[in-house]
Structures are given as C-alpha cells and as structure tokens.
C-alpha cells in the first residue's frame, strides 16, 4: 500500500508498506532504472529518510544556484559573452 509519494523537480520518493515493512524508493523521473529501495521497520524511519533526501536535494540546488551566480558575476567582470546563457539557467530556478 502506497503511503506517501513526493515528486520533486526530477526525483520521486515513495513510501510503501509491504508485509509490515516500510519501503522507501527514490528514483529519477527520467530514468526508471535509477531507483534505490531502502527498508525500515517504522514509518518514522522511512519519513526521516525521505526528509533527508529532500534536504540534500535542496542543499545541492542551492549550491548550484550560488555557483551560477558566481559564474555570472565572473563572466561579466571578464567580459565573456556567456552571461545570457547563465541568466537562462538562472531563470529555470
């Protein structure tokens, strides 16, 4: 029985209860074979796993955003003609 399904920008996290165990599956939306399955004895442990995955995803996206901002600043200082490309990437956040 599916208990929880969370879809982020490119990942899906699902908690299911099967035979008394809570299974957490995390996979990329564009690669069905990328999934990993983790087994927990309690719903709380399974929810903590999903929460930690979401926190890590958020941290990585924040890091990427900050890196793009630094690249934009540097490209403008150096007069490189890539600012519009970087701005295009930033618009997707």
Our count of helices gives: 2
Principal-axis shape equals: elongated
Largest sheet descriptor: 4 strands, antiparallel
The topology string of helices and strands comes to EEEEHH
> Kindly, what is the distance between the CA atoms of the first and last residues, rounded to a whole number of angstroms?
34 Å
Radius of gyration: 18 Å
- Average pLDDT for all residues: 84
Q: Order of strands across the widest beta sheet? A: 1-2-3-4
Task: Offer a quick outline of the entry.
The protein is α+β, with helices and mostly antiparallel strands and 93 residues long. It has helices at 43-78, 83-91, and strands spanning 2-7, 11-18, 21-28, 31-40. Helix 1 packs antiparallel against helix 2 (83-91).
Defining traits:
93 residues; alpha+beta; 4 strands; 34% strand
SSE diagram, text form:
Layout: E1 2-7, E2 11-18, E3 21-28, E4 31-40, H1 43-78, H2 83-91
Antiparallel strand pairs: 1-2, 2-3, 3-4
Please characterize this protein's 3D structure.
The chain has 2 helices and 4 strands, in the order E-E-E-E-H-H. The model has no long low-confidence stretch (mean pLDDT 84). Helix 1 (43-78) packs antiparallel against helix 2. Strands 1-2-3-4 form a 4-stranded antiparallel sheet, with helices on one face. It has helices at 43-78, 83-91; strands spanning 2-7, 11-18, 21-28, 31-40. It is an alpha+beta fold. The longest helix has 36 residues, at 43-78. Strand 3 (21-28) and strand 4 form a beta hairpin. It is elongated and about 60 Å long. Helices cover 48% and strands 34% of the residues.
């Amino acid at each position: 029985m599916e208990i929880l399904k969370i879809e982020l920008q490119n990942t899906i996290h699902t908690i299911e209860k099967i035979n008394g165990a809570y299974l957490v599956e995390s996979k990329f939306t564009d690669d069905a074979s990328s999934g990993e399955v983790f087994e927990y004895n309690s719903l709380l442990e399974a929810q903590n796993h999903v929460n930690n995955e979401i926190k890590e995803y958020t941290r990585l996206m924040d890091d990427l955003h900050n890196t793009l901002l630094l690249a934009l600043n540097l490209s403008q200082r150096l007069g490189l003609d890539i600012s519009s490309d970087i701005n295009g990437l930033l618009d997707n956040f």
